[in-house]
Structures are given as structure tokens and as C-alpha cells.
Amino acid sequence: MTFLLNILWLIFGGFISGCLWLLGGAILALTVVGLPWTMAAWRIAGFVFWPFGREIVDRETYDGEKDLGGGCVGVVLNIIWFVFAGWYIALSHILAAVAEAVTIIGIPFAFKDVQLAALALAPIGKKIVDKP
């Protein structure tokens, strides 16, 4: 069932959304200032291309590894991200979720867009893992 949902997701907007996340990451990579967020954007793109059967977890609680998402640095990076990009990307995912939730078939897709909106608000320190 997750395979079918992922295929439908790709056909009805997931491919375009994933490509936009990849493009955003590439633009961030072109600047020295945007490098801390590049990998987060590409990680989100991977989730956008194939979201069903996967989940978003906090990196520290999942495997205990320390990275930019841990501590004060991650908080500062997420605040900067929220101010300059996160809120309006999250708003676009929420608007897509509202449009998808109008139909019964679109409800699973709306839930994924809400997850993407939450992830778009603060992507540093998150990890995408396969569901058990």
C-alpha cells in the first residue's frame, strides 16, 4: 500500500515539490552562508520524493549522535531558517494540505504535507528513517 501511495504522491505533486527542495538546496550550496542548511534541504527532498513508509525523528533521540542540530548551534540555525525561509515554506505545505484534505483520497497526502510543514519550520537536527 505504501508503494501505491508513494507513486500517487509523485504523480500528483510530490515530484515537483521534491525538485523544488533540491533546487533550494542547490541555491543554498552556492552561497557560503547557506551551507549549514543545504544538507537539511536535500534530506527533506529525499523525504518528499518517497514519504510513505518513512518518518521524521529527532536526530539526538534516535541515535544519540551530535551534530549541528544539537545544542545552541542548532537552535540558532533553526531560528535563522524560520525567519528567512521556514515560515513561508511551511505555509505552502499547509495550504497544499488543506486543498488535499477536501477529498477522502487526499487525506493521507494532507497528513504528509502537515509533517513537511512541521519539518520546514525547523529542519536542523531532524532525521528521516524507515518505519519498522
What is the helix/strand order? HHEHHHE
Q: Given the helix and strand composition, which structural class is it?
A: mainly alpha
Query: Low-confidence segments, ≥5 residues, pLDDT <50?
Result: none
**Oligomeric grouping of the chains:** single chain
- In what range is the share of β-strand residues? 5-15%
Helix content: over 70%
Rounded average pLDDT: 89
Instruction: State the separation between the terminal residues, measured CA to CA.
Output: 15 Å
Shape: globular
Cross-sheet strand order for the largest sheet: 1-2
> How many H/I helical runs?
5
> In the residues, how many domains can be counted?
1
Radius of gyration: 15 Å
Question: How would the blueprint of this fold be written?
Answer:
Elements: H1 2-30, H2 35-49, E1 54-58, H3 59-63, H4 71-100, H5 107-121, E2 126-130
Antiparallel strand pairs: 1-2
What attributes characterize this protein structure?
single chain; 132 residues; mainly alpha; two-stranded antiparallel sheet; 5 helices
